[in-house]
Write a structure and sequence with these properties.
By secondary structure, the chain is mainly beta. Helices cover 12% and strands 35% of the residues. The chain has 3 helices and 26 strands.
């Protein structure tokens, strides 16, 4: 009798264990299905979202803020106008219109504007444009009594740089954290830098320039520029070996500099200059295209060249890098510290981050259908990009999505 009772208990216990095991399997299966479902959703979701804030533009090529707490964005059109977006709408009257002064063929045009660090008090702004002779012009203007209109009678030309060809004009102006004006200059154009101008210290072409606009007209030379006193070099030069630094920027917190240099036929690159730099870097062109020998085909680097932190090839429709900004805004914590940049031809946008060993890597954030001509920051550090098209161009605001970047430290996601 006791034996039968014990056997029944064992059978009952065995059945109960089987039921628990089946239940566990069902629960685990459901959890796996949920995980796969979420994985599929997040895999399909891009890392960033974009929102149009201004449309119907004619070839926008730059986005800038004035640092005057007005909340305005200034949109440069290649055709020679600067428009104002006042956080609600585009203003009907251009902030500046110098169309009659500007050649707009190919890569030429009104290419950027930079506002003086003390713009709130002095009203100075600086533009980079290609004049009707094809030369690069750096000019200063002053805002009128109407804060939304420039006084064109205040035009003062600071610098005119002849261009041997119509392409590779550079075009970016930025004030650095040191208060000096930085000017990105291309190598003069054609293809392959036929006169090797980027390595020639007697010309301003193929260089990053650095000038002082506060100590006299048209400008003065900062005495700590690296080639001051060298009779074989131009004093304005800050760094050399650039092919076409179409867009460069400064980290608004650290002062580090990112220079996106458009490549020749195969490679696009991003160069990095720490805020502690004393200048004089040689980024390699035409000896090298990114980290690859160009001319000569072998033995191009004797160890003196500064190699890029990022590069990518021309596969999958890529062809021309558009440099961006390192995100330091507050609205998108998942993007914090990412250097955001894109490609004009493919429309792809990437985010790059440096790991604890100092190595940079990129993640594709979004594949768009747009011609990405420029990125820009507002006063709060939020990032926008411009789609360049004739009369259908637009400005887009970038924001994060629910998807986490795989290489971001968890600290940045809290």
């Amino acid at each position: 009798m006791d034996f039968l009772l014990l056997s029944q208990k064992r059978i009952l216990h065995f059945k109960l264990e089987c039921m628990i095991l089946r239940f566990k399997r069902v629960i685990i299966t459901q959890i796996i299905l949920v995980i796969f479902a979420f994985s599929s959703v997040f895999a399909a979701e891009p890392y960033i979202a974009i929102k149009p804030i201004a449309t119907g533009l004619n070839r926008p090529v730059a986005i800038t803020n004035a640092g005057d707490a007005s909340g305005r964005l200034f949109i440069t059109l290649q055709t020679g106008e600067i428009l104002i977006y006042d956080d609600l709408q585009l203003l009907a009257t251009p902030f500046l219109d110098i169309s009659p002064l500007v050649s707009t063929a190919g890569e030429q045009g009104l290419l950027s504007v930079a506002f003086h660090p003390d713009y709130t008090n002095n009203g100075f702004l600086y533009v980079n444009y290609t004049n009707t002779d094809g030369a690069t012009v750096i000019a200063r203007y002053r805002v009128s009594s109407d804060p939304n209109v420039v006084d064109q009678a205040t035009a003062t030309i600071l610098l005119t740089i002849p261009q041997p060809f119509g392409n590779h004009n550079g075009g970016q102006l930025q004030f650095g954290p040191d208060g000096y004006l930085y000017i990105g200059m291309g190598d003069g154009g054609s293809g392959g830098d036929p006169s090797n101008l980027a390595q020639d210290l007697t010309t301003l072409l193929g260089k990053m320039l650095r000038i002082d606009v506060d100590k006299g007209l048209p400008y003065t030379i900062p005495q700590d520029n690296p080639f001051v006193g060298n009779p074989q070099a131009r004093d304005e030069i800050w760094s050399t070996g650039l092919r076409n630094p179409w867009r460069f920027s400064f980290d608004r917190q650290t002062g580090d500099m990112f220079i996106a240099d458009v490549g020749q036929r195969s490679w696009e690159e991003v160069n990095f200059q720490p805020s502690t730099s004393l200048g004089g870097e040689n980024y390699g062109w035409r000896l090298m295209e990114a980290s690859h020998c160009y001319n000569p085909a072998i033995g191009c680097n004797n160890g003196s060249l500064d190699l890029p932190i990022l590069e990518y090839d021309h596969s999958n429709g890529n062809c021309s890098i558009t440099g961006g900004y390192r995100y330091k805004g507050s609205q998108n914590p998942k993007l914090y510290n990412l250097y955001i940049y894109g490609d004009f031809c493919s429309g792809r946008i990437w985010g790059a981050l440096k790991d604890e060993t100092g190595i940079w890597s990129s993640t594709e954030l979004l594949d768009t259908e747009y011609r990405i001509s420029s990125f820009g920051e507002d006063e709060n550090g939020e990032i926008y990009f411009a789609h360049r098209a004739s009369n259908t161009g637009a400005i887009y605001l970038i924001s994060q999505t629910n998807k986490f970047l795989p290489h971001l430290p968890l600290l940045l996601l809290e």
